[in-house]
Amino acid sequence: MIDLRAILDLLLILRRRLWLVALPVIAALIWVLLGARGSVSASGYTTSMRFAAGLPPERTAGVYNYDRHYDWLASEYMAQAFAYTVPTEAFASAVARRLQNEGLQVAPAALAAALRGDHTSSIFRVTLAWPDAAQLARIAEAASAELTENAAAYWPQLSNPGGAPVRRLDLPDVVASAPSLRASFDVPVKLLLGLAVGVALAFLAHALDPALRDRRDLDRLGLRALAHIPR
Questions:
Q1: Which residues are CB-contacts of 114 (< 8 A; sequence separation ≥ 6)?
Q2: CA-to-CA distance for 60 and 190, rounded, in angstroms?
Q3: Nearest Cα to 203, choosing from 24, 27, 26, 12?
Q4: What is the DSSP code string of 161-218?
Q5: Whole-angstrom distance, CA of residue 122 vs CA of residue 81
Q6: Of 69, 121, 165, 204, which residue is least crowded by CB atoms under 10 Å?
Q7: pTM (global) more than 0.90
Q8: What are 165-204's pLDDT values in tens digits?
Q9: Nearest alpha carbon to residue 84 among 126, 113, 136
């Protein structure tokens, strides 16, 4: 059975020390607001580009090419291969050299961490995340140039002549990154944590307070009140 008097006593304790409950909540709110000032720069920006992968078909007189089935199958293998090539140190270093020639110094290790690749059939996608939008656009162009102009340098299967094996399908579109799941729950978690700390401090202060404030305090000590002076 719920003891309503006990619950009322707890609420009265919190009411008396409401300022003590509010202090950690206010501190948590200030913490959240200070963190929100740099939220855009912290989350940064992202962009992605899609590329079609393939090689010119082999033409051998008198040989059936299965309606170019193997040409398309090879293009799927190439898309997968370049999706795995994009986040490598070798590719990041080549992109960093291109950027250095344009006057932009970027660490290859930072580029490797920012680059991601995936593929679907004969198309592979390059995704980049970077804190500066202007630099991200330049990095995307350098990565695209490296893929379309120097793709054969990464796979020995492509070293024979026959044209560029990679073509870009769309231009990079730089957009602000969506907040992470952690960032979405960051504000309520911090405020709830501040509230919990405030409630704990209020009860601790009550436990350490020797003062008697109303008749209930006397009742808990087994003492009888002789008189009560109203406010």
A1: 128, 129, 130, 139
A2: 69
A3: 12
A4: SSS-SEEE-S----EEPPPPHHHHHHHHHHHHHHHHHHHHHHHHHHHH-----SHHHH
A5: 11
A6: 69
A7: no
A8: 676 766 777 877 766 666 667 778 888 888 899 899 888 8
A9: 126
Residue found under tokens 């409950």: 21
How far is Cα 126 from Cα 47, in angstroms, rounded to an integer?
Answer: 8
**Residues whose CB is less than 8 angstroms from the CB of residue 91 and which lie 6 or more positions away in sequence, other chains included:** 85, 112, 115, 143, 146, 154
Residue with tokens 């051998």: 60
162: left (phi over 0), alpha (psi -120 to 50) or beta: left
List, in order of start, the domains of the chain with CATH numbers. 4-39+181-221 (no CATH), 45-176 (3.30.1890)
